[in-house]
Amino acid sequence: MTPHAPSVPVFIVSLVLAALALLGHIVLIPFFTLYGFWFVFLAYAILAIGCVIKT
């Protein structure tokens, strides 16, 4: 299992999820503020899987 750079769509999805979690931490957005930790966890998991799985 050799790591490589994730594809652009995987990186964009991960970036959007992390940005929504950060925005939910700064501004009160009901769903994103409540589940901010899980959005960051999901963004990291998607990015990590994108680095391991060959596309």
Query: Overall pLDDT, averaged?
Result: 92
Span between N and C termini?
A: 13 Å
Number of helices: 3
| Classification by helices and strands | mainly alpha
Would you report the number of β strands? Answer: 0
What composes the largest sheet? none
Stretches with pLDDT under 50, minimum 5 residues: none
How would you describe the shape? Answer: elongated
The value of Rg in angstroms is 13 Å
N-to-C order of helices and strands = HHH
- Estimate what percentage of residues fall within beta strands: under 5%
Number of domains: 1
Q: Helix and strand layout, with pairings?
A:
Layout: H1 8-26, H2 30-34, H3 36-52
Helix pairs in contact: 1-3
Transmembrane segments: 7-29, 35-53
Keywords: Membrane, Transmembrane, Transmembrane helix
What can you see in these coordinates?
The protein has 55 residues and is mainly α. The mean pLDDT is 92. The two termini are 13 Å apart. It has one domain (8-52). The longest helix has 19 residues, at 8-26. The chain contains three helices and no strands. It has helices spanning 8-26, 30-34, 36-52. 75% of the residues lie in helices and 0% in strands. Helix 1 runs antiparallel to helix 3 (36-52). 11% of the residues are buried.
Brief write-up:
The chain has 55 residues and is mainly α. The chain is built from three helices and no strands.
Defining traits:
mainly alpha; single chain
